[in-house]
Structures are given as structure tokens and as C-alpha cells.
Design goal:
This protein is mostly helical and about 45 residues long. It contains two helices and no strands. The two termini are about 20 Å apart.
Length: about 45
Amino acid sequence: MSKPVAIPALDETTLAELTRRFNSTTNAETRLRYQMVLLALPPFSG
């Protein structure tokens, strides 16, 4: 089995931009990709 992808914590500006893009996109595939990145960040990646 491959190792899970670990994404380091993002600075506030980058996290805010990622969250803004996640909330504003109307494309389901793009939204899913943003969500995967958000869920891979601490504290969700537990």
C-alpha cells in the first residue's frame, strides 16, 4: 500500500484563498479536488 499524501499546514492567506475557491466554484470536479486538499490538511488528516 502506498503512503498517504501529507500536506503541510498552509498560511492563513493561502488557506483563505483555497477556501474561497472551494466555496465559489460551480464545477463539481474542481470543487471535489479543492475539498480533497482541504481534508488532507491538519487537523483533518489525523
